[in-house]
Every structure is written in structure tokens, then in C-alpha cells.
Write a structure and sequence with these properties.
about 450 residues, Rossmann fold, Dihydrodipicolinate Reductase, domain 2, seven-stranded parallel sheet, 16 helices, about 35% helix, Inositol-3-phosphate synthase
Length: about 450
């Protein structure tokens, strides 16, 4: 797939979000507030970051919008699906992330965003109990109803194009099954046969989005588009896909701090990570089967940055059974904390002559405040990628994602090193702007 210069955007950009909870309402409110000049979109790379183009005397540092034709915030039109019927204003109030002074000036616009009935299977999120749910004959019918929703949204709003973003809860872990997930033909047959065990509702959203010509972004650790059948569909429909799981708090710290240990050639005995979280995401993750999906996502970050096989003297300590450092991740549901998540890391390292040292990191973060700018960047950059003729897995978006998609069938290792991811991001922007990619440090 040759990268070409991105075409200029025409008309409005529809953003259909799966899940109208804390993350998505914070995302929507922030965009609406920025349009009115009431708030700044802090944390958004597309709005603030500058990239160097050219070298020597021709060197310039420009915002993304001055390099590539990114859609304007004023051209975004929001829509959503959710299992609960409350509109975006009511949901934002219930989420208790934003203060009244930040929500009330946006009340009319948020109230106009009413969620469509969700494609939902309670077996995939047992802790959720909403009644704004589609009645579907089977998984194929589920996808067909979602396709119709996308067509109706386009017709009713007059948007030129749509990006679909999953910002809903983590589903029960679905292991990759080659017989079902290996080819598009097998996936479609399983949907028609109503294979509820191997076809998660999120897969129906992704299938519907791609068939309707919409890029799809997986913001949870679900295996939704991380399967060969979806890669095949993305190639067939020439649509970008990206995932999985927003990289917000603890994993952002891990992907930025682990390179310090690796670059300095220090040893690692163990890394223990724990989180306390009280919002709807925390409630769902309190179910062991749902936590398993998240655990797989969070564990993968460190193992591709500090590789025991490459440096056995530095990382070949800890677990006797696999002779490497000990890595443990925990998430604890704690209602009083609500959206104000706490991530605590204990890192046991060693240095010269094997002498031990410790690092403690305590990140008192706000989950949705960190996730909202990622939603904006992923949406705008996926739309840009589509207009540049880029399709399939968008590896350059790994910077924003906890467990980046990769072709594991060919032994590909994902890039989790934050600064390597940043080089990938910058070079993709350069290429889509018609400039030369390079790896010069700046």
C-alpha cells in the first residue's frame, strides 16, 4: 500500500461512538467547548504537537494541520449507540467527570446527541444492565441493523463521511479461533450461524462500519479487529482500522519509562502495577472474564520493550519457570474513586555488580480526561489516513494505543516503545503531507 498525499476533506465528518459513557461524553463536551472557545483541547497531538519537516536551512516545525489536511473541529458531527437511553448531557452529568460549569453551556448540543439502541449481549458484559438494546435474530442481523443505523445517520445529518469509534466497555475475552476468525468467509458464516461464543457484539460493529465505508477504531482491549478476517475485510473495503485499547494512564507511563531502563542498560527483577478505578469501566472489569481481556493488553507492553532473550543478563531474572523478570498487573474496582483512577507501580531494578534499587510511581490521573484527546486524535488521523488511501492496520497510530495491532500470524512484534511509536507517527504525517520520512532526532 503506497502512501499518497492526503486529499482535502469535503463536508462534515460524522463520529459515531459506541458507548455514551464517561470517556465519550468527556470527548464530545471537550470538542464542543473548544469550538465555542470555552476550553482548550489540551493533550491532543493533532491540535498542539509540532513536527519538523525538511532539514538544514529548509527546516520548519509545523502543526499537523499545516502539514496535512486534518478535519476541522467545527466540521465534526457526533452520534452514538448505548445500552442506556440517556442523552449525552444526562450521561455527562451522571459520569461526574466534568463540573457543572463546563457542561451547562453545552447543554442544548449535548441533549441533541441521543443514543441509538445498542447491539448488546449481556454475556459479554454481565455488570451492565441497560434496556436501550436492539432485538436481533442473530449476529448477522445485528450487523445488518448497525449498517442501517450508519446509513440513517449519514442521511439525517448530511455528513460526508463517518468514523466509528469504540469507547464502550471491555468485553469478555474472546481467544482467536482460526476456524472462525481466520478468513472473512468463515467469519460471515459464523455470524449467519449465530455463533455467540466466537462473535462478540463489537465484531458486528466493526463489520458494519467497514462494510459501510467507515474507518473503525477499537478503544478497548477487545480482539474485535485484531483477527485475520477483519484485516481481510479492511483490505477489501480499503478502510483503515486501529486498535486496541486507549493508552491513557499507567501504560503510557510504562511505555515511556521502560525505555529509560532499557536505554541505560539497567537490570529489571520485577514490575508490579496496580490500579484502583470506580467508573463504569471499573465495574465491568471487576468481572474476571472481562479483566482477562484487559490483562492481556496491559501485560504485552513491557515484554516487547525489555526482551529477556535479547539481554538475559539484564532481564533474565525473576520467575523460575521462564527465567525473566516478574510482571504483574492488577485492576481493582473501588467506587469512591469514580473516574479519578490511581495507578501505582513498584519497579525492582538492579545496577552495577547486581546491587538492587527501587522505583515507585504513583499516577493520580483522570481516566476520561486522558482518554478524550486520544479519541479526538484517533478519529481525525483515521479520517486522514482514509483520505490518503491508507487502509488495513494503521501501525502509526500505535502511539495512542495500549496493545497495538500487529500481524502475529507472521511473527510480527508490536512496537510499544513510546519514542519509537512517536517516530512512526511523525513519519506517517510527513508522508501524508507529501514530505520525506526521516529519523533525525529533534
Amino acid at each position: 500500500m503506497a502512501t499518497q498525499k492526503a486529499e482535502a476533506p469535503k463536508g462534515k465528518l460524522g463520529v459515531l461512538v459506541v458507548g455514551l459513557g464517561a470517556v465519550s461524553t468527556t470527548f464530545m463536551a471537550g470538542v464542543l467547548a473548544a469550538r465555542k472557545g470555552l476550553a482548550k483541547p489540551v493533550g491532543s497531538m493533532t491540535q498542539y504537537d509540532k513536527i519538523r519537516i525538511g532539514r538544514g536551512e529548509d527546516k520548519k516545525y509545523l502543526h499537523y494541520k499545516d502539514i496535512v489536511p486534518i478535519a476541522d473541529l467545527n466540521d465534526i458531527v457526533f452520534g452514538a449507540w448505548d445500552v442506556y437511553p440517556e442523552n449525552a448531557f444526562e450521561s455527562a452529568v451522571n459520569a461526574e467527570v466534568l463540573k457543572a460549569k463546563d457542561i451547562l453551556p453545552l447543554q442544548a448540543e449535548l441533549e441533541a446527541i441521543k443514543p441509538m439502541k445498542a447491539a448488546f449481549d449481556k454475556n459479554y458484559a454481565k455488570r451492565l444492565d441497560g434496556n436501550n438494546v436492539k432485538d436481533c435474530k442473530d449476529r448477522w442481523d445485528m450487523a445488518e441493523q448497525l449498517r442501517e443505523d450508519i446509513r440513517n445517520f449519514k442521511k439525517e445529518t448530511g455528513v460526508d463521511r463517518v468514523v466509528v469509534l469504540w469507547a464502550a466497555s471491555t468485553e469478555v475475552y474472546v481467544p482467536v479461533n482460526d476456524e472462525v476468525h481466520g478468513t472473512l468467509e468463515a467469519l460471515e458464516a459464523a455470524m449467519k450461524a449465530d455463533d455467540k461464543e466466537n462473535i462478540a457484539p463489537s465484531m458486528c460493529y466493526a463489520y458494519a462500519a467497514l462494510q459501510e465505508g467507515c474507518p473503525f477504531i477499537m478503544g478497548a482491549p477487545n480482539t474485535t479487529v485484531d483477527i485475520p478476517a477483519m484485516w481481510e475485510l479492511a483490505e477489501k473495503t480499503k478502510m483503515p482500522i486501529a486498535g486496541k485499547d486507549f493508552k491513557t494512564g499507567q501504560t503510557l507511563v510504562k511505555s515511556g519509562f521502560a525505555p529509560i531502563i532499557g536505554t541505560r542498560c539497567l537490570g529489571l527483577n520485577g514490575w508490579f502495577s496496580t490500579n484502583i478505578l470506580g467508573n463504569r469501566d471499573g465495574l465491568v472489569l471487576d468481572e474476571p472474564a472481562n479483566f482477562r481481556t484487559k490483562e492481556v493488553s496491559k501485560l504485552s507492553t513491557l515484554e516487547s520493550i525489555l526482551v529477556p532473550e535479547e539481554q538475559p543478563d539484564l532481564y533474565g531474572h525473576g520467575n523460575d519457570e521462564d527465567t525473566q523478570y516478574y510482571h504483574k498487573v492488577r485492576i481493582n474496582y473501588y467506587p469512591p474513586r469514580n473516574d479519578n483512577k490511581e495507578g501505582w507501580d513498584n519497579i525492582d531494578i538492579f545496577g552495577w555488580m547486581g546491587y538492587p534499587m527501587q522505583i515507585k510511581i504513583n499516577f493520580l490521573c483522570r481516566d476520561s480526561i486522558l482518554a478524550a484527546p486520544l479519541c479526538l486524535d484517533l478519529v481525525l488521523l483515521s479520517d486522514l489516513a482514509m483520505r490518503a488511501g491508507r487502509y488495513g492496520t494503521q501501525r502509526f497510530l500505535s502511539f495512542f494505543l495500549k496493545s497495538p495491532m500487529h500481524d502475529y500470524t507472521k511473527g510480527e512484534v508490536p512496537v510499544n516503545h513510546l519514542f519509537q511509536q512517536y517516530v512512526m507517527l511523525k513519519n506517517a504525517i510527513r508522508e501524508m503531507g507529501g514530505y520525506e520520512a526521516d529519523e533525525e532526532i529533534d
